[in-house]
Design goal:
The chain is α/β, with parallel strands linked by helices and 265 residues long. It is built from seven helices and eight strands, in the order βαααβαββαββββαα. The chain has a domain at 7-20 and 43-62 and 120-264: Zn-dependent exopeptidases (Aminopeptidase, 3-Layer(aba) Sandwich).
């Protein structure tokens, strides 16, 4: 199936890049930082979801989420994960131990101005371009998650991890779209859960829950369990990676076609 031209692929956690200027902020040793990057990066999601969108329709964060997490709300007052030290600028690591030294207000603002806001400007521009050209936009928010829950997640011991997590937003994810994504991934015999272990679906801040009458911008998050395609620890793809990537893309495209959102947007 051919990806629709009004699809925007958002990849916020794929990068492992940590600029040298930021390294001095971390209180971890080089080995500890490498381990944290291994745990917290959505490794190879650019390749995993890449068939869904052309480069011009793909918005990928250029730096690691340990530098700035572009998926978080800008203000800690609005971000639930800030209570665990994981707002837009993390202060704690995945084990809830200190990640950074205390930052000054100027240092914090420099991180946001250099990495966070430019990413959201690119995201907003990509969505606006789809609206101008096609009158609608669907954001696929591509992620992966660790096979075993990390401490920061606060998961109950022994919690079952699905193969696929579909994340939704009550405002921006049509109910029929969520059902279609679950149905298509279940056809592969993968275990699918909705908003577990992670929830939500992103749209540009300029569009976030602005107007209930305007349903032209929709979003769904697709999270893939790394055990399906990756050796953990480490970021080495399994031999069947190409096949898994093809299945993920085809499930997404079939779900988009099945839900009929484009005809009703």
């Amino acid at each position: 199936m051919t990806p629709p031209p009004w699809l925007v692929l958002h990849l916020p956690h794929d990068s492992t890049e940590v600029p040298s200027a930021v390294c001095s902020q971390f209180v971890l040793s080089d080995a500890q930082l490498a381990r944290e990057l291994d745990r917290m990066t959505d490794h190879h999601t650019q390749a995993l979801f890449g068939a869904l969108a052309a480069p011009a329709q793909t918005v990928r964060a250029p730096v690691s989420r340990l530098v700035v997490d572009v998926e978080r709300f800008a203000s800690d007052d609005d971000e639930a994960m800030a209570a665990r030290g994981m707002g837009a600028v993390y202060t704690t690591a995945s084990d809830l131990q200190p990640l950074r030294r205390p930052l000054s207000a100027v240092e914090h603002e420099n991180l946001m101005r250099t990495y966070y806001w430019p990413h959201h400007e690119r995201f907003d521009a990509a969505v606006n371009e789809a609206l101008v050209q096609h009158g609608r936009c669907l954001v696929i928010d591509g992620h992966s998650f660790a096979a075993q829950a990390l401490p920061y997640e606060g998961a109950a011991p022994g919690s079952v991890r699905p193969d696929i997590c579909i994340g939704t937003d009550a405002f921006h994810t049509p109910e029929g779209m969520a059902r279609a994504f679950v149905s298509e991934f279940e056809r592969t015999r993968w275990r699918v859960m909705v908003n577990e272990p992670f929830s939500g679906a992103i749209v540009p801040l300029s569009r976030y829950r602005r107007d209930r009458r305007d349903r032209r911008v929709a979003s769904v998050m697709v999270e893939v369990n790394r055990s399906l395609y990756l050796c953990e620890p480490g970021a080495q793809p399994l031999l069947g990676f190409t096949q898994i990537a093809e299945q993920v893309s085809q499930c997404c495209l079939k779900a988009i076609d099945a839900c009929g959102w484009a005809s009703s947007a």
